[in-house]
Design goal:
- The protein has 617 residues and is α/β, with parallel strands linked by helices.
- Helix content is 44%, strand content 15%.
- It is built from 20 helices and 19 strands.
- The strands form 5 sheets. Strands 3, 4, 5, 6, 9, 10, 13, 14 and 15 form a 9-stranded mixed β-sheet that branches. The protein has a 4-stranded antiparallel β-sheet with strand order 16-17-18-19, covered by helices on one side.
- Strand 16 and strand 17 form a beta hairpin.
- The N and C termini lie far apart (58 Å).
Length: 617
């Protein structure tokens, strides 16, 4: 029996050696090589779709062999446990180099920024402890020298990881402030031509920075849009694995900056942007409580925490970062996600009357909306958009007034953050980006809200960037007319930080004058719809799931910017050309992927909030 088990163990070890040699020869990544060597190449080759699965498979195989051999001698069990411990040491080194173990300036403590890092640490410590305890109790110890060597390797690898991974950014590295405003359509901003005074601070920022007139979001709903923005991948490429929209194995903007020595923080307000969805990847400080809405089950209502909660948390973090910076000199990356323009539109005073539709105040009508349960209000607004529920022009305008009031209030709160950055003397060395995840429809195409189409009112979002003085960029006050994508935001930030762009990112840096229209692809993944905007044309493909046919829309953006006249029948050549371009960029199968297939895996509280908002049934 022992001969058979020893042969199996030898085969695992040799296959691990060959696998490690191949890994090192291909990419010279020592963590990959050590991980293959310690675990054994057979398990890695056949059961390794991810690092986590590899760890589970390796532990199972190694422990089994160790237990079987252990019937003959404890020393062999020590060797097995030590080998597995070496694997976890290699993974710990990998995690440290990926800066998933970081220092949170708010809590003043070390923190794991990914679930995988925590699993590696806990299980790794357990196996190291098991190896040491078994070694200590072993009397027949021919492999004790081997165990000692492995222990030294463990310590050396962790020390090396700690010393090489906690990178320090250059002294002139710019700070980065990314502000995303949920549900903000570009044409309700003054700088984009809106007649109302909704955005004094954003307009001033545009005058002092660069405004991109045709910025297109990659999705008309929050979770795929923001996942796309932070990873610079198309929504269909993200896959939506078990609601982990940003998988830990996928490089993100925050991870790139964290690895470059940045203090990274996020303060978010939308229920889709939770840690559960993977949006915390790469952030040393992730705050999903300051701005997140609260659900009251008894009334089936959502209590919204307005923009002031996000702002106050941001100011507190900036103060803590400033204190930390005196010691570490680390630049910061701060992402703020505001929610106020999202329905229910209910701005605080005096913004609730700032755009009063005189002489029709419609107090009773607005009070009726506020008194409804959140889900009922959502359904009513949808029916108003389709015409199923009649609403007068004055009542319709009263709701738009409230939406504009939310924007104005949010604009004021953003101004407080910009003022604090200025007061800290950081204006000249801070990259400021303001954008949105998607827009909002107000009966533009017989609809209301978002997440239901790929038309301009949902995809055209503001994009305003104030570049630091150290970055070669368009002159302040420039308006860029060429089409760009929110997909380009992460590459732009990474370029400003002078870091290498991961191969997985599909966007392009926006520095310098944009001299060509970029092809903008957007996807409504839950319906398998895809659009492509290319030169002066836009194609929307809506596969019909019931019959084998496609509902195709083509718009000439030169003469029909708001996309009201479908000219697909008149221009079949353009339909063919844009379809081929779409196939080339994302592929037919990728374009048909869905992100929200697994909503049943949500925790009950999150599900209730999303149901109340009308996102899921």
């Amino acid at each position: 029996m022992r001969t058979i088990v020893s042969a199996l163990a030898t085969a695992l070890a040799l296959s691990g050696v060959f696998r490690a040699a191949a890994e090192l020869a291909i990419d010279r990544h020592w963590a990959h090589g050590l991980h293959a060597l310690a675990l054994g190449g057979l398990a890695d080759a056949f059961i390794a779709p991810s690092f986590l699965a590899t760890a589970v498979a390796g532990c199972a195989a190694g422990t089994l062999v160790g237990l079987l051999v252990g019937r003959a001698t404890r020393s062999d069990l020590v060797a097995s446990l030590a080998a597995i411990a070496t694997y976890f040491a290699a993974m710990a080194w990998y995690e440290l180099n990926a800066r998933t173990v970081v220092w949170d300036v708010m809590t003043q403590q070390l923190k794991f920024t990914s679930i995988h890092a925590g699993i590696v640490a806990v299980v790794g410590v357990a196996f190291v402890a098991g190896a040491l305890l078994t070694w200590r109790r072993t009397t027949d110890s021919p492999v004790r020298p081997l165990a000692a060597v492995v222990t030294l390797v463990v310590v050396a690898l962790i020390a090396r990881g700690a010393s090489t991974s906690l990178a320090v950014a250059p002294d002139d590295a710019p700070n980065i402030l990314l502000i995303t405003i949920d549900t903000l359509r570009a044409d309700h901003i003054g700088a984009y031509g809106y007649s109302r005074d909704t955005s004094a601070r954003l307009d001033a920022l545009a005058a002092d920075g660069v405004l991109y007139e045709r910025s297109i979001s990659q999705a008309p709903n929050t979770h795929p849009s923001m996942a796309s923005m932070l990873t610079s991948q198309y929504p269909s490429s993200l896959g939506g694995k078990a609601l982990k929209y940003i998988h830990y194995s996928l490089p993100t903007l925050a991870e790139v900056l964290n690895n470059a020595g940045y203090d990274t923080a996020a303060i978010v307000s939308n229920v889709w942007l939770k840690e559960q969805m993977g949006f915390d990847e790469g952030f040393s400080h992730f705050d999903q409580t300051s701005g997140m809405s609260e659900f009251y089950a008894e009334q089936a209502r959502i209590h919204w925490k307005d923009a002031s909660h996000i702002t106050n948390a941001a100011l507190e973090w900036l103060d803590a970062a400033a204190t930390s910076k005196e010691e570490t000199r680390a630049p910061f990356f701060l992402w703020l996600h505001y929610l106020d323009p999202h329905h229910p539109y209910d701005p605080p005073a005096p913004y609730d009357t700032k755009f009063k539709n005189a002489p029709h105040d419609h107090v009773d009508f607005l009070a009726k909306l506020r008194d409804m349960r959140t889900r009922e209000q959502t359904r009513l607004l949808v029916k108003m958009g389709t015409g199923e529920e009649r609403v007068s022009d004055e009542e319709f305008q009263a709701i738009v007034d409230q939406y504009d009031g939310e924007i104005a209030f949010n604009d004021m709160e953003i101004g407080k953050v910009l003022d604090r950055v200025s007061a800290m003397g950081l204006d000249d060395n801070t990259l400021v980006i303001v954008t949105s995840d998607h827009g909002e429809e107000f009966r533009d195409h017989a609809g209301w809200g978002h997440s239901h189409s790929l038309h301009r009112e949902l995809l055209h979002v503001p994009l305003i960037i104030r570049y630091p003085a150290t970055v070669n960029a368009p002159a302040r006050g420039t308006r860029v007319r060429q089409r760009v994508r929110t997909l380009d935001i992460a590459p732009t930030i990474i370029a400003a930080a002078e870091q290498a762009l991961p191969d997985t990112m599909a966007g392009r840096d926006l520095h310098g004058v944009v001299d060509d229209d970029r092809i903008a692809i957007s996807q409504l993944s839950r319906k398998h719809w895809t659009s492509i905007a290319m030169d002066s044309w836009k194609l929307v493909i809506r596969p019909d799931d019931d019959v084998e046919a496609e509902d195709t829309e083509l718009y000439d953006l030169e003469t029909d910017l708001m996309e009201h006249r479908n000219v697909a029948d008149q221009h079949p050549d353009q339909v063919t050309r844009l379809s081929a371009a779409l196939e080339e960029h994302v592929g037919a199968s990728a374009a048909a992927e869905t992100i929200s297939k697994t909503a049943e895996q949500l925790d009950p509280a999150t599900r209730k909030q999303l149901e109340a908002l009308g996102y899921i049934d």
